[in-house]
Amino acid sequence: MSQLRQLKETLNGVAESSKRTAAGLAQFEQQFNQQAQQVQAAIGGSAQRKDAEVTAAISQASKQVRAAAEALANASRIARQYGQSI
Fold first, then answer.
1. Is the model's pTM score more than 0.90?
2. In this structure, what are the phi and psi dihedrals at residue 45, rounded to the nearest 5 degrees?
3. DSSP letter, residue 49
4. Quick check: 65 and 4 in contact, CB under 8 A?
5. Which of 79, 73, 57 is nearest to 25 (CA)?
6. In angstroms, rounded to a whole number, what is the distance separating the alpha carbons of residues 83 and 86?
7. For the chain, what is the domain count?
8. For every one of its 86 residues, what pLDDT tens digit does the chain have, with 9 covering 90 and above?
9. Cα 8 → chain centroid
């Protein structure tokens, strides 16, 4: 197998893997956010202000999951485009 063909196959593998993982993370984010809303509803306004700490941690995690999914989707798109261009 030529190096070019091997590179194209590797890029295609990266693109597919990134796409699948991004989709999985997007699904996880939806479930995570639903659970986060339930937690916020249950502990909102606690006297110890732990609710704000928990809410902030959950919100930060959700943002990072979204950013990871977007980065993977972008990597998938770029790898696929590059593989098709060579």
1. no
2. 75, 25
3. S
4. no
5. 73
6. 6
7. 1
8. 799 999 999 999 999 999 999 999 999 999 999 999 998 888 876 667 778 888 899 999 999 999 999 999 999 999 999 999 98
9. 25
